[in-house]
Amino acid sequence: MNLQLLTDLYEFSMANGYYATLPHDRQARFDVFYRRVPDNGSFVIVAGLQQVVEQVQNWHFTKENIEYLNSLNEFTPEFLDYLSKIKNHCSIKALPEGTPVFPREPIISISGPLIEAQLLETFILNIINHQSLIATKSWQINHAAQGRPIMEFGARRAQGPDAATYGARAAVIGGCTSTSNLQAASQFNIPAAGTMAHAWVESFSDELSAFQAWAKVYPDKVSLLVDTYDVLKSGVSNAIRVFKQVSAQGHQPVGIRIDSGNISQLAIKARKMLDDAGFPKAKITASNALDAHVVKSLLDEGAPIDNFGIGERLITSSSSPVLSGVYKLAEEKINDQWIPKIKVSDSREKITLPGNKQVYRIYRQDNLHQAIADVIGLAGEHITAPLKVVNANSATTHASQVLTNFNAKPLMQEYLGSNASPIENDLFKIQQFSMDQVAELPEATKRLVNPDRYPVYLTATLAELQEQLITKAQFTEEY
């Protein structure tokens, strides 16, 4: 899809103004970051980088795009002629997909001509905010499931085809094992999964006939939906009869799915019925408007559920449906010199971090797989112990401290530009990378309720630069 016009009008208005008033080759650097974690969590799982790089790499305006922009009667002919001829000149530095990222840390840094970089804002935020939101929700649900497979079932509840398809992609990055969405399955090489709907059972004269018909067509995929009429009185009993029939024919039944009712108690009783009938390997799948807290509650109650099918509350992140990532100017190149830029606000958390930055994950010196903090510094800073830092959380009591006995790992890599790293497109490799990165974080930061705040610091150099620019902005303000 051509996304050049997936852009707010004011982006083009500013670009037209830049063209009329500033050098056309003025260079700029913008950062994408967020301030608050959805669902009161402690981190976000980065997703969407592959789609961003693909779109930016192929960025151009078609004849139809230019004709539409001309029809708005807001832009000069010279600006539209400029747009008709340009192609992407921007580079991208970013965190790898699957990285757990904390508030205020740059996720992506876009560098290039000011006009071009400005026009990229809306669709980059659209992609990163959506996929990172769903990947984070998926991680929360998978974390609650304690290793039990989660099947993404949300296409019919997603806000449109793209949200369904790319949401399924993000759900896999966050930990899901499969999707019911064949578009996503085929496009991203995700295992497709699914059983039957209640309509199948209702289309036959009785439940047993429906189950037997399914087993006849799919003898090696006998996973039966048992709650159309009554889970225990008919559903599980009829499923057991069919399991015995297919077992006698040399096939292994898969299990049952419960989609309504008191799932915990129904699963406990169904498990006993299946075990008593000689089917201890038959799996119990639960579905029906589940989320991380419901999944955790079911397992805490001892519900013998083997896997989950989760739809609307995953694909829409319904409990916290927005990741408010922003796109802010960090510096501009004027007369061959990069000049740091800042946005000042009465709210300390809305003051931006200036300059070209790098994010470092700080590990214990005696354990390179145990992260203890992150540090945001200026690119090119020498990050070694001892290191004076300032807490990025402005509400903290002890702002400044010195970090000692650590190893630092830079996280941001170039993905579009002269030294670009290859982008991983195997979702399950990204998923494994994400799992490994999350495993390095302190356990207390992974709690679904009241997680500990993971320390994020600014280097003293970056903090001092920020304070200098704040003071300068306040000094030059007119009253």
From TrEMBL:
Q: Which UniProt keywords apply?
A: Glycosyltransferase, Ligase, Phosphoprotein, Pyridine nucleotide biosynthesis, Transferase
- GO process terms (BP): NAD+ biosynthetic process via the salvage pathway
User: What modifications does the entry list under PTM / processing?
Assistant: Transiently phosphorylated on a His residue during the reaction cycle. Phosphorylation strongly increases the affinity for substrates and increases the rate of nicotinate D-ribonucleotide production. Dephosphorylation regenerates the low-affinity form of the enzyme, leading to product release.
Occurrences of domain Nicotinate phosphoribosyltransferase N-terminal (ranges): 5-129
The keyword Nucleotide-binding appears for this protein? no
Q: Which EC class, in a word?
A: ligase
List, for all copies, the residue spans of the domain called Nicotinate phosphoribosyltransferase C-terminal.
356-465
Q: Name one GO molecular function term.
A: nicotinate phosphoribosyltransferase activity
Q: Which SUPFAM superfamilies match?
A: Nicotinate/Quinolinate PRTase C-terminal domain-like (SSF51690), Nicotinate/Quinolinate PRTase N-terminal domain-like (SSF54675)
Pathway field of the UniProt record reads: Cofactor biosynthesis; NAD(+) biosynthesis; nicotinate D-ribonucleotide from nicotinate: step 1/1
Its GO CC terms?
A: cytosol
CDD domains documented for this protein: NAPRTase_A
Top-level taxon of the source organism: Bacteria
Domain Nicotinate/nicotinamide phosphoribosyltransferase: residue ranges: 150-345
Q: EC number(s) of the enzyme?
A: 6.3.4.21
Query: Does the keyword Ribonucleoprotein feature in the UniProt annotation?
Result: no
Family, as annotated: Belongs to the NAPRTase family.
Which NCBIfam families does the protein's record reference? Answer: NAPRTase_put, PRK09243.1-2, PRK12484.1
Job of this protein: Catalyzes the first step in the biosynthesis of NAD from nicotinic acid, the ATP-dependent synthesis of beta-nicotinate D-ribonucleotide from nicotinate and 5-phospho-D-ribose 1-phosphate.
What this protein is called in its record is Nicotinate phosphoribosyltransferase
Gene name tied to this protein? pncB
